[in-house]
Specification:
The radius of gyration is 39 Å and the shape is elongated. 87% of the residues lie in helices and 0% in strands. The chain is built from four helices and no strands. The protein starts with a helix and ends with a helix. The protein is mostly helical and 181 residues long. This is Golgi SNAP receptor complex member 2. Its main location: endoplasmic reticulum. It is found in: Endoplasmic reticulum membrane; Golgi apparatus, cis-Golgi network membrane.
């Protein structure tokens, strides 16, 4: 009851301050700034009173809640064969479990990416070895240097074509993820 009365008085003070602000704007110019400063100071003080009242109400609410919980705990009877021996799982535990599953999923994703990169490295080594063997065979067969240069030029062009295709694929994947999620 006292808190409601205090809140009503604070609201009344706010409405009076609004009227004072209107009246201060009608003061002569030489007194107007001083009057507005006083009204602003009063508003600031009333806001502090409002905040103090809210803090008091919040502390009182917490005390009452703690007292209620304490009474519930003290009133609860514990038996050896109580059917309600389970502890309810709160949201924090569920949140933690979902974070752990997301973490495991990211680890699996990183692991598969590592495996793919290792496979590509192995293929590169294999292809380099094959390329050397083909060059050795070509030299043995006596292919001309012109044909070899054409093959190397084609391989160089294919490399840029592959890199361009990879870049376009990455851009398309980025745009799909960006606009579809």
């Amino acid at each position: 009851v006292v808190e409601n009365e205090i809140q009503a008085r604070i609201d009344n003070i706010f409405s009076n301050l609004e009227r004072l602000e209107i009246l201060s704007s009608k003061e002569p110019p030489n007194k107007r700034q001083n009057a507005k400063l006083r009204v602003d100071q009063l508003k600031y003080d009333v806001q502090h009173l409002q905040t103090a009242l809210r803090n008091f109400q919040h502390r009182r609410y917490l005390r009452e809640q703690q007292e209620r919980q304490r009474e519930e705990l003290l009133a609860r009877t514990f038996t050896t064969n109580d059917s309600a021996t389970t502890i309810p799982i709160d949201e924090t535990l569920q949140y933690n479990e979902s974070l752990q599953s997301a973490h495991r999923g990211m680890d699996e994703l990183i692991g598969s990416g590592t495996n793919i990169l290792q496979g590509l490295r192995d293929q590169r080594v294999t292809l380099k070895g094959t390329h050397k063997k083909i060059l050795d065979v070509a030299n043995m067969l006596g292919l001309s240097n012109t044909v070899m240069r054409l093959i190397e030029k084609r391989a160089f062009q294919d490399k840029f074509l592959m890199l361009g295709g990879m870049a376009v694929t990455c851009v398309i994947m980025f745009l799909v993820v960006q606009y579809l999620t």
